[in-house]
Every structure is written in structure tokens, then in C-alpha cells.
Amino acid sequence: MGQGVARDLIKQEQIKKVVLGDINTDPGRLQDKLRASEKVSLSRIDVNDHGGMVSAIKEVDVVINCAGPFYKTAVAVARAAVEAKVNYIDICDDYEAADILFASDIDQAAKEAGITVLTGMGSDPGTNNVIVKWYANQLDRVDEIDLFWVVSIAELAGAAWDHSLHMTIGKIPQYLEVSWNMWKGVPVRRRPNSLNPWRLSGSLCGTSSTLTIPRYIKGYEGWSSKGH
Question: What 3-state class would DSSP assign to 82?
């Protein structure tokens, strides 16, 4: 994901430099387009080294955090960005991190530093949130929002596998009956109806969308995230 973001950035004329931070700085890991670009450089950055992160990012304009799983990394990188007074964006899909970014001292510190902290700017959450908001704006009333997504287990590896286990095991947040509650990640089944002719089954999932969507779509009774 980080290299995908970098490919988009180097296409933009106003972007002069892209620094890729990782604990592994082997150039051989880079895709050909990034390795060939004069805009791209590699820097060793460890998300567990707060001081090192602050020093590494204080000269840039924006930090884009693509290092998952985000329940382990988002808060640490955001704190470093706030201290360095650098704008921060992530593709966080873990609910604990999103909750902290909204409710902790990070929010106030970012405001005092005059920077922006954006979380959940990936495909899910991120694009899905925008799609939900767009459809909600077309309706007189929204009673329920269900988000279904399908992932092949064969596609999961590394941080994605860690995240997938984390979001389905134990108790996870769902916005039901006009409040956030912790629910067990149990299997669920969706019956066909006139709008949805398919019989779907899966498990409740914990994503940061359950914490963000209810903040800007008011009046509905429930929101849930289900993975298949």
C-alpha cells in the first residue's frame, strides 16, 4: 500500500520528494517505477523509536502512514507527527487506534500545532465511508447501514493477517440502537429481501468505520460491519 501511494505521489508535479520509511531499506524491495524515480529515497524508520521518527519526519510536509497493523502503529506515528508539527494521514482500519486519535490528547495537540490528522483514508474505511455518505445524502431518512466485504484468505499475509484476526476475535464495536456497544465477533446471516436478493453469511467485524460513520450520518438506528 505504501508503494502504491508513492507511485501516485511521484506522478504529481508539485511533489518534489518522497521518502519511503521502513526498517528494511533494501532497494531491491522497491517496485521498478519507484527505484527509477529521482524523487524517491529510502530512510530507515522504526515506528517503535519515537525520537527517531520525530527526527526523520520533521522536514517533510505530510506523513502518510501505511504501516500495519494499525492498532500497533497508528497512535505511535501520529504522536510523532504531531510533535514534529507535520500533517498526518493514515489508512487505519483498526477501531482502537481511531478511537484514540479522536478522543485523546493527540486531537488537541494537533489543533494547537496547526496541523491536520486524517485517519481511515484507505479503501475500507475511507472510500466506503464516502460512498455511504453520498447515498445517505440522496435519501430522506437512513434507518440502517450495513457494510459487507469479501476477502480471500489466500490474499492475507503479514500485517493483513494480523489485522484480520484482530478484527474478528473477541469483542468488537458496533453502532446499534443509537449507541456504540462491544459485540462478540459472531457469525451472522443476512436474509434476502427486495433490495438484496442474495443470502449472505459472515462474521461481525471490528473496523474504524463503526466509529467514524455515526459521527456524520445522524438519525439511523444501527450500523454494522460484516466480513465474509
Answer: helix
Torsion angles phi and psi, residue 203, rounded to 5? -130, 145
Indicate the average pLDDT of the chain: 84
Q: How many CB atoms lie within 10 A of CB 224?
A: 19
| Residue 228: per-residue pLDDT | 39
Residue carrying the nine cell digits 471490528? 206
CA pseudo-torsion sign 24, 121, 54, 8: positive
CB hemisphere CA count around 183 (13 angstroms): 22
b/e for 89-128, b at 16 or more Cβ within 10 A? bbbbbbbbbbbbbeeeebeebbeebebebbbbbbebbbeb
Which residue from 39, 117, 43, 127 is spatially nearest to 80, judged by alpha carbons? 117
Digit-coded pLDDT (tens) for 154-184 = 666 777 777 777 777 778 887 776 777 777 7
Q: Which range is least confidently modeled, 2-16, 43-57, 95-109, 181-195?
A: 181-195
In whole angstroms, how far apart are CA 46 and each of 59, 95, 173? 17, 22, 30
- Omega cis (within 30) before 27: no
pLDDT of residue 190: 56
